């Protein structure tokens, strides 16, 4: 446990240093804007300076200093209204105009979530079970219709609540409580790439610990995460299990995508695409087909998670499990399974064993 704590602190330390150093990654125009602004914490002086020092430090990120805050928030709000219009054309104008912006956003997120879930699940299942089922599976490993129907039922109950997460995240971004920025030009491409990697590192870290916590904390497993672990055999998992969670469980595992926005600058549309891409990803990791693409933590790893409960908690990549010592590769799993299935030799008497080894020698 102490080594896990040390590794966790090491990760947080390196992350914080790189995030703090990202101030240096400003192009010329931004450097001019930034020069007069304080970029370090000033803890001396009158009470309240620590808080304003922290605010100044955040404000001095290239992203936030590039344009006035009001302009940044106006662009974020406009972008969200544009996304609402793209999806909400389904509603007649007279009805749509009466729905408040917040609930239009929720409707849009819900419709997109359902579209991703059903389209990806249906297309994926059609190809792996109906088109290539005889090549990819043995008959007893194809899930029964009743298991898939149960996964769809659980997902349908959870989706309206899942949709609250991106809705509240957009609300927070529009209010200016996050470090989200609307345009790549706000930071320039190098900083965009750096922040992207920092953001994903924080998400991987957060998802790992959320998921591990949902196993290690007994009541959390029993009341929240067990609903997803009912499907623990290869013939009960399917792409439709991807969103089959207790809604609180599903939100907890996705919330690192939101909380990271509060301390790591991130292009907002990229953040939303990544959040909805998890719908595609979870369909993929529940199909039980091991793609063998290092360092991706694909279905082979996740099937092991569903059968051992104590390995492979990670999100997209194997790094967090490797760092925390919980990684178990499909190759290791197969080797162990083959060893356990091997018939144990019948106990032999000493003389029989000597004869056997003698005859073995003769054969060489
Ligand atoms: Zn789990
Ligand atoms: Zn799962």
TrEMBL record:
GO terms for biological process: lipid biosynthetic process. It holds the Pfam family FA_hydroxylase. Its main location: membrane. The chain crosses the membrane at residues 109-129, 192-210. Residues 197-326 form the Fatty acid hydroxylase domain. GO terms for molecular function: iron ion binding; oxidoreductase activity. One of its GO terms (cellular component) is membrane. Residues 1-20 form the signal peptide. InterPro entries: Fatty_acid_hydroxylase (IPR006694), Sterol_Desaturase_Related (IPR050307). It is found in: Membrane. Residues 338-364 are annotated as: Disordered. Keywords: Membrane, Signal, Transmembrane, Transmembrane helix. Belongs to the sterol desaturase family. This is Fatty acid hydroxylase domain-containing protein.
């Amino acid at each position: 446990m102490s080594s896990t704590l040390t590794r966790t602190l090491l990760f947080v330390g390196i992350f914080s240093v790189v995030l703090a150093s990202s101030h240096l990654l400003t192009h010329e125009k931004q450097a001019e804007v930034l020069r007069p602004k304080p970029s370090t914490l000033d803890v001396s002086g009158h009470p309240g300076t620590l808080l304003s020092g922290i605010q100044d430090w955040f404000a001095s990120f290239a992203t936030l200093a590039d344009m006035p805050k009001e302009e940044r928030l106006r662009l974020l709000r406009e972008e969200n209204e544009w996304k609402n219009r793209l999806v909400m054309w389904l509603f007649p104008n007279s009805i749509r105009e009466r729905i408040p912006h917040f609930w239009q956003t929720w409707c849009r997120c819900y419709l997109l979530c359902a579209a991703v879930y059903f389209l990806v699940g249906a297309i994926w299942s059609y190809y792996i079970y109906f088109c290539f089922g005889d090549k990819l599976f043995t008959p007893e490993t194809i899930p029964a219709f009743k298991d898939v129907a149960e996964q769809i039922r659980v997902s349908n109950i959870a989706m309206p609540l899942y949709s609250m997460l991106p809705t509240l995240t957009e609300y927070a971004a529009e209010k200016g409580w996050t470090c989200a920025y609307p345009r790549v030009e706000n930071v320039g491409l190098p900083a965009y790439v750096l922040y992207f990697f920092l953001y994903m590192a924080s998400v991987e870290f957060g998802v790992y610990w959320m998921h591990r916590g949902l196993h290690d904390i007994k009541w959390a497993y029993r009341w929240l995460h067990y609903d997803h672990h009912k499907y623990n055999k290869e013939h009960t998992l399917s792409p439709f299990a991807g969103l089959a969670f207790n809604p609180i469980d599903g939100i907890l595992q996705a919330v690192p995508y939101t909380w990271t926005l509060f301390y790591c600058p991130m292009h907002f549309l990229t953040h939303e695409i990544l959040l909805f891409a998890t719908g595609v990803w979870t369909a993929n990791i529940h199909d039980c087909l091991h793609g063998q693409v290092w360092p991706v933590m694909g279905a082979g790893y996740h099937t092991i998670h569903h059968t051992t409960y104590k390995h492979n908690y990670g999100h997209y990549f194997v790094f967090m499990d490797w760092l925390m010592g919980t990684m178990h590769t499909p190759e290791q799993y197969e080797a162990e399974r083959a060893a356990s299935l091997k018939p144990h030799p019948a106990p032999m008497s000493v003389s029989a064993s000597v004869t056997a080894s003698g005859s073995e020698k003769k054969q060489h």
